[in-house]
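Hi again,

Forgot to attach this to my earlier email, sorry! This is the prediction with zinc ion bound. I've pasted everything inline since the attachment limit keeps bouncing my files.
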Amino acid sequence: MSLSRNLVAGGLVAGAVGGTLAALRHPTFGAAPEGARLDRMRRSPQWDGGAFRNPLPMRSSGSPGAIWEWFFGGDGLRTPDAPIPTVARTRADFEAPQRLRLTWLGHGTTLVEIAGRRLLIDPVFSRNASPGPLFGVARFFEPPLRLAEVPDLDAVVLTHDHYDHLDHATVRRLADRVPRWVCPLGVGAHLERWGVPADRITECDWWDEAEVAGIRLVCTPARHFSGRFLDDRNRTLWSGWAVLADEARLYATGDGGFGPHFSEVGERLGPFDATLAEVGAYNATWADVHMGPEQAVRAVEEARGGLLVPVHWGTFNLAFHGWTEPAERVVVAAEAAGVPVCVPRPGESIEPTAPPAVERWWPELPWKSADESPVVSSGLDGAVAQAGLSEAA
Ligand SMILES: [Zn+2]
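C-alpha cells for the complex follow:
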C-alpha cells in the first residue's frame, strides 16, 4: 500500500517536473536533434551511447564550493568599474575586400575577412550570455558593431551551443540575412527552430569540411562540452575551425581544454597566419574545458598557429579570475615562448601580417600569475603540461 502510494506520489512528482520542464522549454533553449540529423550524429566516432564525448577523460568540476564562488565569490576585479575603450564601427568599414583581417567584437564574436569574403564566428550581440537577465551574465560593453551594421556575410560559423557563443536573439535577427550557417553536428537543430532555413545549414563532424564561397572550413576537434538546458548535456558537438583560402589561413580554437588535438591540427592544416585562441574563463578545477592563457600559447605553438589573437575574455563575467588577468597572462606567456601576440580593443581590426604592438588599453589591476594560479588540463603527458607551465613562469 505504502509502496503503491509512493509510486503514485513519485509519478505525480515526475509528471509535474516533466510538465514544468516542457513548459520551461522556451525557444532560447533550442531544439533536440531528431530524425536524419540524430541518425547522422549516432554514426559519428564522437558519439557514445546518448551523447558526444571527448577522447580524453574529463576531470569533473562544479563542486558545491565552486558553484557558490561562481555566484558570490570574487574580489571585485571580475568586472570592470570603468567603461572599456571600444572602437565603434559601421558597415562601411568593411566594404573593401581584405586578404585577412580580424575584428574582435567581444568574447568569441569575431568578424573574419578572408580572401575577399566575410565570416562571423559565434555572434552574440545580446546583453546577456545566459537564458535571460535573471542569470545575470551581462556584457561589459555594448557591441562595437551594432547588429544592424553587420556587413553582408558569406557565412556564420559556430563552435558550439553554449549561450556565450550561440545567441537565440542574434540568430533570429541574422536568420534570413546570412546565406550559410556552418556548425558542428546537432547545432543545426537549434538554428532551424530559430528560423534558419534547413538548406542553409551545414553541420560537420570533426575533420569534415565545408566550402563557402571558395573558402575551406575544416571542423577541428576540441575538448569541451555542450548544452543549453537541463537534459541536453553533450547532445550537440563542439569544435574549433580552420578557415583556409589560397591567400591566408586562420585557426579558431573554439572553447576547450588543452590536448593532443592542437598538434594534430598543426600537422594536418598548419601553418596558419593567425589563431583566435581562447584565453579566458579558466579555473584550475575546470581546466579540461577551458585551457587558460599559458596553455593557449602552447596550443598556438603546437598548431603552428602564427599570430595569437586572444578571444573569450574581457566581455562576460564567467569565472573567478580578474577580468584583465587573461590578457596579462597571455602576454607574459607568449613573450616567454616567443609566440607573436596582439591584444585588440573590442572593435579594432587587425591584419596579421602587420599586427600592432601590444598596448595596454585595459587598466592595471592586481592579477594572479601562472605560478600563483596554475591552469593545467588533465590526462596529458608530463612534458606537455610542464612546458605549458614553465613557459609562463
Ligand atoms: Zn563553452
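The first strand starts at residue 47 and ends at 48. Confidence is low (pLDDT under 50) at residues 1-19, 383-393.

That should be everything now.

G.
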